[in-house]
Design goal:
Number of domains of chain B: 1
Order of helices and strands of chain B: HHHHHH
CATH topology of chain B: Arp2/3 complex 21 kDa subunit ARPC3
Shape of chain A: globular
Number of helices of chain B: 6
Oligomer: heterodimer
Strand content of chain A: 25-35%
CATH superfamily of chain A: Rod shape-determining protein MreC, domain 2
Strand content of chain B: under 5%
CATH architecture of chain B: Orthogonal Bundle
Shape of chain B: globular
Number of helices of chain A: 5
Distance between the termini of chain B: 25 Å
CATH topology of chain A: Thrombin, subunit H
CATH class of chain B: Mainly Alpha
Helix content of chain A: 25-40%
Largest sheet of chain B: none
Strand order of the largest sheet of chain A: 1-2-5-4-3-12
Order of helices and strands of chain A: HHHHEEEEEEEEEEEHE
Structural class of chain B: mainly alpha
Largest interface: A-B, 43 and 41 residues
CATH architecture of chain A: Beta Barrel
Chain lengths: ~270, ~170
């Protein structure tokens, strides 16, 4: 027979659970933030130790002190490439639209470099955690990019960490445009395939638009989260939706596949255009 | 095992879990270090601490994923209760025990998340991927829980708890 105390304990546990479920979003984010802020420095430390060990091994193999210098320069190159790509897009748009004001705003677009501290704890989500948060100017729902293109958007930001929902996550949707044809569509993540490659799918492409495998897909700038003309990836295969109303294209999200240790968070929102 | 040790173990386990590489051919499931730790704790502590450990494991698990807070807590609580009920029936110092409990726990966990995420509309239920993940959970559970047991046992034997001097 189950004792009265046991029943009371189970009721207490159920009440605690219910309380957690009913917590307002702000509280939930704060609770998650406490754990993330606690662990992320440890994880960053572990990653740095791993990298130092690798650099040490490289030194032993004859590279000397160049390994550390090489890493620093690599990070610098990655940052410059990202800024260069963004600036190129800005210049192109300026030439096209001749809008001095828009040009000025885009020139001041800031990128915050952030180190990837960890991946999501469960394989159900496609996310990474950055070792920077609101303290460093990273805000919620901001685009995260690398020199290869769009990586995703920040989803949960605490003081010292930011969770990035990758482009390949089913919860991440981006308004996109095919560079060659100019046709619009919506890119949504599809998780990873069994080879480990992240995949995304572009839907709602007009059925008469002549799209090709290999076409470049970029952000459209609509929606207000992602800046315009950031590369999403390249079309891998094309099909027509069951009802035949629009085309569907499977995309290889280049930046997610080549995910680097250092990524860049847009300090501004994309701005609906 | 004190509450502090349990907390530190779970936090360290969570840190490791996010850093270990996932294998794509088994559905990109991550190494179930937290589940392995809970199995270890459940066979060595009293009911109150086990309940605390289960709640903590659920909280940490959700804190490190974009899932809503509290999603995994019912699973970890039920797992803790189930393991507590089984503890008299199993050998707590046998690798096989951890292997069997690990594969059962991780397979159930995979099923639980598939069900919860699909019912709440967070993820679509794909039978093919679920089958791969169940098989993956089977393998990872059978490997991770004994590894966790071996590592903690080695550490505990290397650094034994100092005995209090009785005057």
């Amino acid at each position: 027979m189950v004792g009265q105390k046991t029943v009371l304990k189970w009721i207490a546990a159920a009440c605690a659970l219910l309380l957690i479920f009913l917590l307002p979003d702000g509280c939930t984010a704060r609770v998650k933030g406490v754990f993330k802020n606690l662990i992320t420095p440890v994880q960053s430390g572990m990653l740095k130790t791993g990298r130092s060990l690798k650099a040490g091994a490289d030194s032993v193999r004859g590279f000397g002190g160049l390994a550390e210098e090489n890493r620093r320069l690599y990070e610098e190159v990655v940052k410059l490439q990202a800024e260069s790509r963004l600036n190129k897009n800005i210049e192109a748009e300026n030439l096209k639209l001749r809008q001095a004001l828009a040009f000025h705003e885009r020139q001041t677009k800031m990128l915050i470099p952030a180190e990837v501290a960890a991946r999501s704890i469960s394989g159900w989500w496609q996310s990474v955690r950055l070792a920077k948060g609101t303290r460093d100017g990273v805000l919620n729902n901001r685009a995260v990019i690398s020199p290869d293109g769009l990586i995703g958007r920040t989803a949960e930001v605490s003081a010292r960490t930011a969770e990035v929902l990758l482009l390949s996550d089913p919860a991440c949707s981006v308004s996109a445009r095919i560079s060659r044809t100019g046709s619009f569509g919506l890119v949504t993540g599809q998780g990873v395939n069994l080879k480990g490659y992240p995949i995304a799918r572009m839907r709602f492409i007009h059925k008469d638009t002549p799209i090709r495998v290999g076409d470049e897909v970029v952000t459209s700038g609509l929606g207000g989260v992602f800046p315009r003309d950031v590369i999403i990836g390249y079309i891998e295969s094309i099909s027509t939706e069951e009802a035949g109303l629009y085309q569907v294209a499977d995309i290889l999200p280049q930046a997610v596949i080549n995910l680097t240790d250092v990524v860049f968070v847009s300090a501004d929102d994309g701005g609906a255009e | 095992m004190s509450t502090l040790v349990i907390t530190l173990l779970l936090l360290t386990g969570a840190a490791f879990q996010t850093l270990l590489p996932a294998w794509a051919f088994i559905g990109s499931l991550e190494w179930p270090v937290l589940t392995g730790l809970l199995i270890y704790i459940s066979l060595r502590t009293d009911r109150a601490r086990l309940t605390y450990a289960s709640l903590m494991a659920g909280l940490i698990y959700d804190a490190f994923s974009p899932a809503p807070l509290g999603t995994s807590m019912p699973f970890f609580l039920l797992l803790g209760a189930g393991l507590y009920a089984l503890r008299e029936e199993v050998f707590e110092d046998q690798i096989v025990t951890y292997s069997v409990l690990g594969l059962l726990a991780v397979t159930l966990k995979t099923l639980y998340f598939a069900l919860v995420f699909s019912l709440s509309g967070l993820r679509q239920l794909q039978p093919g991927l679920l089958t791969v993940r169940l098989a993956g959970g089977f393998i990872l559970g059978a490997l991770t829980a004994p590894l966790v047991y071996l590592i903690i046992s080695t550490v505990r034997h290397t650094f034994p708890k100092p005995r209090r001097r009785v005057l």
